[in-house]
Amino acid sequence: MSDLSVRPYNEGQVRAADSLLRSLGGFSVGLRVPTAAAAAVDGEQLGISSPLFQDLPLSPVVFRKLRSVMVEGQTVKYELLVSSSAVEAAVAVQQVASSDVLLAMATGIVVNSILFLIEATSFSEWQGNVFVYRILLRESLPDAAEETVS
Amino acid sequence: MENARNTFYLALRNQLAVVNPLRVLLLRGVERPGIMVEENESAVAFAIPNVFVLRWTKLSIDTQHALPLVAQVCEILYWTEGTSANGGLDRGRLLSAMDADLSQILVPRNALKQNFIVTPPAAMATRLFWNGAAFDGVVTTKNRISRMASVTVYSYEEAVEL
């Protein structure tokens, strides 16, 4: 039975998510984003000059390995639970329109100096407001390394 | 070879800005014509719809000429889901529009090769040329339709490139 009672929105869910994530480790990771591209400069589009990158801190988060069916050649996947307060802070720092834009422009997540690529993102919301993001990650390994490992 | 690839991309990009200035993409905060080279962009898992993605694949070198003749195959991939305002029902029409755009930006079929490693870019002595696009069939994946077209780009390796 759904709850149809009228309640004003407050940030209780966000604070609860923050508390829960902190109590489960309160880990900190870096969201690697490139600096803005130089307009009217062809070098970056041609791969001649590489853009600069910066790691925006995201905390609190929980980082865990996903339990998955073992398939040869498939990289291990990880899940990152991020508090929306951390993402909103990064959105403000980058001055982008939304968290979608921020995550789309990110090249990955840096965890203990290891870069993970973003496979997919989803979120949980309450009254139309996101309180936790779920980011699916995989290791950024070259194919040759994967073959060696397997 | 790299100069030919760079020149080909910029020729198509500049033509697209003329043929269809509304086909743009927003990447790292900068709006530019809706075409990019896959190997020159970060390995993001998020694909961008309604733009052209260039992927360089096969390479062959014919040395039976005064200068080595290099043939490089460029696969051009593009896909669309239609527009949400139309419930995605216009995706066939949008893919046809992309087919038409691609045919147009491939004309003219030659360009003066340039060296973009130096600043400003330096004009080289030879031209590169390419054939028309060979369109593959449409691939449908749920509400997404995509197509790949192949173009072979020919160029001469000049003495300074060897």
Keyword list:
heterodimer; A: globular; B: 162 residues; alpha+beta; two-stranded antiparallel ribbon; 2 helices; 20% helix; 41% strand; elongated
In short:
The complex is a heterodimer of chains A (150) and B (162). With 150 residues, chain A is α+β, with helices and mostly antiparallel strands.
What does it look like?
The complex is a heterodimer of chains A (150) and B (162). Chain A has 150 residues and is of the alpha+beta class. Helices cover 27% and strands 37% of the residues of chain A. Chain A has one domain (12-34, 46-149). Chain A has five helices and six strands; from the N terminus they run αβαββααβββα. In chain A, β4 (108-111) and β5 form a beta hairpin. With 162 residues, chain B is an alpha+beta fold. Chain B has one domain (2-161): STM4215-like (2-Layer Sandwich), CATH 3.30.2000.30. Chain B has two helices and ten strands, in the order αβββββαβββββ. Chain B has helices spanning 2-19, 91-105; strands spanning 24-27, 30-33, 35-37, 52-62, 69-80, 110-115, 122-130, 134-135, 139-141, 144-156. In chain B, strands 3, 4, 5, 6, 7, 8, 9 and 10 form an eight-stranded mixed beta sheet that branches. Chain B has a two-stranded antiparallel ribbon with strand order 1-2. Chain B is elongated, with a radius of gyration of 17 Å. Chain B starts with a helix and ends in a 6-residue tail after the last strand. The relative contact order of chain B is 0.21. The model of chain B has no long low-confidence stretch (mean pLDDT 91). At the A-B interface, α2 and β5 of A face α1 of B.
E-strand count of chain A = 6
Secondary-structure element pattern of chain A, one letter each: HEHEEHHEEEH
Report the CATH C-level class of chain B. Answer: Alpha Beta
Radius of gyration of CA atoms of chain B, rounded to a whole number: 17 Å
- CATH structural architecture of chain B: 2-Layer Sandwich
Give the number of helices of chain A: 5
Q: β content of chain B, as a range?
A: 35-45%
Class by helix and strand content of chain B? Answer: alpha+beta
Number of domains of chain B: 1
State the helical fraction of chain B. Answer: 10-25%
Query: What is the overall shape of chain B?
Result: elongated
- Outline the biggest β-sheet of chain B: 8 strands, mixed
Count of helices of chain B? 2
Query: Which structural class matches the secondary elements of chain A?
Result: alpha+beta
Gross geometry of chain A: globular
> Which percent range fits the helix content of chain A?
25-40%
In CATH, the topology of chain B is named STM4215-like
The end-to-end distance of chain B, rounded to whole angstroms, is 10 Å
Radius of gyration of chain A: 18 Å
- Average pLDDT of chain A works out at 82
Query: Total domains of chain A, how many?
Result: 1
